[in-house]
Amino acid sequence: MRRAASLFLTLLFLATTLPVFAQESDSPGSDDDSGPLESDWSVVQTPMYNRGDQIFGISLGIILPLFFVGDSGTLDNNVSLGGTGTLSYDYFFSSRFAVGGEISGMFSSTLGENMLYIVPIGIRATYQFTLYSFEFPLTLAAGVAPQKYLDRGYFGMYIKPSAGVFWRFNSDWSFGLNTTWWYVPQWTSNKEENVHGNFLTITVGARYHF
């Protein structure tokens, strides 16, 4: 009986310990063709912008008078090359779309050596593409545009589509170029005196991200 009991205990011990050794042989250090598991985090890309991100921008450059159209057709261009600057603010509602406001200013002399001043103030919407460290904002702005020439003033409107390219220097700053089309009409009670002004600006800018 003692021999039978000893044999039974030996078989029971082997039955309980062999599966443990089998599991250890299948550990990651063993020769297994399946290889280690690979993480999927490497394919996850974090967007450069998120909802709530904001930009404060400043730009300076030149403004070119393109052409002026009246009731009778294209008018003589008596405005020369001038200067312009813009302060802007944008709030992102998604990784690509932002809404904000801006205030601009321009000055340009005429053939009579007088100065024309325009100060557009309005709202803007921006859709922006990103590629690596580069940002490509497409913006449409509209608002009011007080104008002054000699002792005459005019309170009108403006529309400004623009496109730019900026390089993201670090998490706080980006720098780049921007080109903008200014449409600045003057509508009066006399249709023959209506003027549709068209300008083009080329500016360098800096944007602070927060």
Index terms:
single chain; 210 residues; mainly beta; Porin; 1 helix; 10 strands
Provide an overview of this structure:
- This protein has one domain (54-209): Porin (Beta Barrel).
- The chain is elongated and about 55 Å long.
- It has one helix at residues 2-25; strands at residues 54-70, 73-75, 79-92, 97-110, 115-118, 121-131, 134-149, 152-168, 173-186, 195-209.
- Strands 1, 2, 3, 4, 5, 6, 7, 8, 9 and 10 form a ten-stranded antiparallel β-sheet that branches.
- The mean pLDDT is 85.
- By secondary structure, it is mainly β.
- Helix content is 11%, strand content 60%.
- It is built from one helix and ten strands; from the N terminus they run αββββββββββ.
Concise structural overview:
It comes from Breznakiella homolactica. The protein has 210 residues and is mainly beta.
Class, according to the CATH hierarchy? Mainly Beta
What is the 3D shape?
elongated
CA radius of gyration is: 34 Å
Helix content: 10-25%
Question: What secondary-structure arrangement, pairings included, does this model have?
Answer:
Layout: H1 2-25, E1 54-70, E2 73-75, E3 79-92, E4 97-110, E5 115-118, E6 121-131, E7 134-149, E8 152-168, E9 173-186, E10 195-209
Antiparallel strand pairs: 1-2, 1-3, 1-10, 3-4, 4-5, 4-6, 5-7, 6-7, 7-8, 8-9, 9-10
Protein name: Outer membrane protein beta-barrel domain-containing protein
Keywords: Signal
Signal peptide: 1-22
